[in-house]
Design a protein that fits this description.
Elements: H1 2-16, H2 18-21, H3 24-44, H4 47-51, E1 54-62, E2 70-71, H5 72-84, E3 95-106, E4 109-118, E5 126-137, E6 140-150
Parallel strand pairs: 1-6
Antiparallel strand pairs: 1-2, 3-4, 4-5, 5-6
């Protein structure tokens, strides 16, 4: 009897384990959120679209600019509108996001480390590091919180 209870408890624990609930599709979707969707929206100059990548109550803080936490999609859209001002050519909107790591925190949360590379070789490159917490929502994976800092030139 004890062996049956122990075995049943073990099977239940394994079935609820994040390792069982986390899939390769989750990692691919999170990487695509940054490397594909985020980059494409930036390059199109779509501030509203960028803000939709966040959860409703998500927040953003850049240690490069005002260092003020922006909360909610509306404030985040306003930040992106300002950030995109004057970036009216493809060269000025060039952005590549390289996902460095996706670390599962739970079945519905992950930490993502991203290198953001703005510009081109011709215009000069600016590198920033983003650390984001993403959450699995009814809309798919969305950014719950993100912090960005400039990476010093090498």
């Amino acid at each position: 009897m004890r062996r049956s209870i122990a075995l049943g408890s073990l099977l239940l624990a394994l079935s609820l384990s994040p390792a069982v609930l986390w899939s390769a599709e989750d990692s691919a979707a999170i990487e695509s959120l940054f490397a594909d969707t985020f980059a494409e929206l930036w390059q199109r100059g779509d501030a509203r679209g960028l803000s939709e990548l966040w959860t409703e109550q998500g927040d953003w803080m850049s240690l490069v600019g005002s260092r003020r936490i922006r909360s909610g999609r509306q404030e985040i859209a306003e930040v992106w509108e300002i950030g995109l001002q004057g970036r009216d050519t493809p060269e000025k909107r060039a952005l590549r996001l390289d996902v460095q790591a996706v670390n599962r925190l739970s079945p519905a949360l992950a930490q993502v480390d991203v290198e953001m590379i703005f510009g081109t070789e011709a215009t000069g490159l600016i590198r920033e590091a983003m650390v984001a917490i993403v959450e699995l929502t009814g809309e798919g994976w969305r950014i719950a919180s993100a912090r960005v800092a400039r990476i010093p030139e090498r």
